[in-house]
Amino acid sequence: MNNQQEETKAIRNQTNRTEQREHSTPLFMTSSFVFDSAEHARALFADEIKGNVYSRYSNPNVDEFVAKICDMEKAQSGVATASGMSAIFSSLAALLEQGDHVLACRSLFGSSHQILSGILPKWGIDFSYGNIDNPEKWESRIEDNTKVLFLETPSNPGLDLIDLEWAGKLADAHNLILIVDNCFATPYLQKPMEYGADVVLHSATKFIDGQGRGIGGIAVGKERYLEEISFFCRHSGPALSPFNAWMFSKSLETLPARMDRHCNNALALASSLEDHPNVDWVKYPHLESHPQYNLAKKQMKKGGGVVSFNISGGYEAAKQFLDKLNTLSLSANLGDSRTIATHPASTTHSSLTEEERAAVNITSGMIRIAVGLEGKDDILEDVHQALN
Ligand SMILES: *Cc1c(COP(=O)(O)O)cnc(C)c1O
Q1: Strand pairing of 366-370 and 77-81?
Q2: Residue-level pLDDT at 303
Q3: According to the model, what pLDDT value does residue 351 have?
Q4: What is the reported pLDDT for 30?
Q5: Three-state DSSP state, 275
Q6: Domains and CATH numbers, the chain
Q7: Which UniProt keyword terms apply here (predicted)?
Q8: Of 338, 349, 277, nearest to 309 (Cα)?
């Protein structure tokens, strides 16, 4: 790690050149690596020297991607995985054992909720939720066997925040491992390790790829935890493909520039919706009207690429809005260069009950816009014509 600016390191940190003198890191699409001699092979397997053996363990493209994210997140170590979900599952499975308990925020990503409620209980691992709007009650939910505090901020799609400094202190006071899913904010906008996070998780599928092409994930953090997560991944095998790692590494070169533009477009869209007669409320972390604006300014460099708002008239009005959009895509993804509109209650969060949705502030008229990189005026124009 050197003291260059973050934008410079995102571009310049890369694998050492090969004898071909390439300017941009080539793709190492190989499942295994050759040994110079029988003795070389023995020494590699005995861990006496470092080097590539097999791409489920290590690969130059995957290692480059991990090194770049570790640098951005100020993490000591990391492991890349085939999806965001495999990073989340592997981290929890590696760090927890039978009889342990997880305290998590209720507004977790849907599949994370499924892991806590439908998979980990099979191995005797229990969980409970804290609501995002009453953090003062969380402490009373910590049990003797609570081992992990698992958070996501900002929340999807409600865009509520959890105070990372508060969470870091809570975890510290109770000896909990603080795990933060930082996918929404990206390592450029928010660095949970600065507030005491032990492990930071990403779905690389979203803003890290940035162009809606590939699935991938990564866990980074403190060495003592990553050692266990890496061991779990090496042997259980959710390895990231070298091709996707190569693609994500290229994408990281433009992450700061893209995020600046995602955020500027999103802030412009959110501001333009504030006084709209057909909009009940609009939520965006760096909008002054956000109830946690000061916290958002403190822990997020910019407000992120997602805007949520509620259309007056509920589901019927929301359907009409979506069907009138011309330029925007109807899709369930986010973090794409193309702006995407989603109706969470009928799609991404439809498996929740009405009460569960209400507990995380997902209303029937709520629209989530994952603001892309198109011209700002065209995004605003399309949203406003569909609203009117
Ligand atoms: C998409 C997403 C995930 C899951 O990532 P995949 O790459 O789809 O497996 C996890 N957490 C958050 C916050 C996400 O948005």
Answers
A1: unpaired
A2: 98
A3: 85
A4: 98
A5: coil
A6: 6-252 (3.40.640.10), 255-387 (3.90.1150.10)
A7: Amino-acid biosynthesis, Methionine biosynthesis, Pyridoxal phosphate, Transferase
A8: 277
Total Cβ atoms within 10 A of residue 133 = 14
User: CB of 231 within 8 A of CB of 273?
Assistant: no
Length of the chain: 388
CA atoms within 13 A on the CB side of 297: 8
Tokens (6 digits) for 169 = 């202190």
Of 90, 206, 360, the one to substitute when testing ligand 1's pocket (max ligand atoms within 8 A of C-beta) is 206
Task: Ligand 1: list residues with CB < 6 Å.
Answer: 83-85, 109, 152, 156, 181, 183-184, 203, 205-206, 215, 217
- At 201 the three-state DSSP class reads strand
Q: Average pLDDT for residues 233-248, to the nearest whole number? A: 98
Q: Residues 157-181, buried b or exposed e (16+ Cβ, 10 A)?
A: bbbbbbbbeebbebbeeeebbbbbb
- Name the amino acid, one letter, at 25: T
How high is the pLDDT of residue 136?
87
* Cα distance between residue 45 and residue 48, in whole Å: 8
- Whole-number percent of the chain with pLDDT over 90: 93
Strand 101-105, strand 146-152: pairing: parallel
Banded model confidence at residue 356, pLDDT cuts 50, 70, 90: confident
Q: How far is the CA of 239 from the centre of ligand 1 (A)?
A: 16
Q: How many CA atoms lie within 13 A of 291 on its CB side?
A: 10
- C-alpha 308/C-alpha 151 separation (Å) is 20
